[in-house]
């Protein structure tokens, strides 16, 4: 009996353990389900609040956007054809009144091509450069001279900065004043003014010959004659001679050595005519001009010595050593003679036009001078009256392009 009870107890013991294990398992499952349910509820609550917030923000944004007036949509960009820049555009002449300073101007003017032939058709022009105190008071005469020859000349005027242009300006000179500085007679700043004029004229690639004139200068021939004379010339016209007197060699300073020796020292008029090669040499000179700036002051009169000396040293082979501008020094004194209205008549002008002169070992020319000075403002009315008869301003034909399209002389 006891054995049967032991056997029965032994059989019930595993069932009891199994029941306890099952209870624990159900509790763990219940706890797990509870945790999952709690997590799900929590997540659901969080998501519901988030979605409500997003919906409110979206509605607010839509309301805000709806209150802003709608802007029309921009049209698609239009394709713009890019313009090509050719050589002529690159060489386009800048305005006469520019913002370049002195060094920038000299540098820009000294830029040149080493190829002499031009890759495009070009009409060579003569640059007429007027160095004046104020207005060009003989402008009406020059206007007749230039009339009908547009495209064959350029005009540049360097006047005193204090000149306010109060004098009525002739149409042909309108807008032709370059940026200028003060100039004093006989001072080295007169050479600076000449270099300034040359630099501005060199900016135009078509300018082939360069003439320096004053407000008291007049032409002695019509435009066609002067243009042909200059464009066909192979020489420069810078007066240069050796003057052994005190007003020649006596102005030389030994401080100019070694760049300039007494043997190289020359004198001449400042009124020149030169080709493009010599003009480029003058504006790019960094050897001789600084010497004159430093040592040719006061009674040295740099305007009478710098160009004659420079041309004789650097360009002597092609310099005629004479000027094309007639000046009367026969009366003596530091200044040439000037002419009044009463001095003018047809015979006087004809004598100037027919003068012959011999330079360079006796070589003569049948037209010694193309210009003359010093004619005062009072001469204008008489000049306008007799110029058509003497200089044939009203009787010349307009130059034909096929006759004037000449190759540059370099």
From TrEMBL:
Single annotated GO MF: glycosyltransferase activity
InterPro entries: BC10-like, Glyco_trans_14
Stored Pfam families: Branch
Coiled-coil boundaries: none
Annotated keywords: Glycoprotein, Glycosyltransferase, Membrane, Transferase, Transmembrane, Transmembrane helix
Bilayer topology term: Single-pass type II membrane protein
Keyword Isomerase: no
Compartment list: Membrane
Transmembrane segments: 27-51
Any single GO CC term annotated in Swiss-Prot or TrEMBL for this entry: membrane
Protein name listed in UniProt: Core-2/I-branching beta-1,6-N-acetylglucosaminyltransferase family protein
Species the sequence originates in: Vicia faba
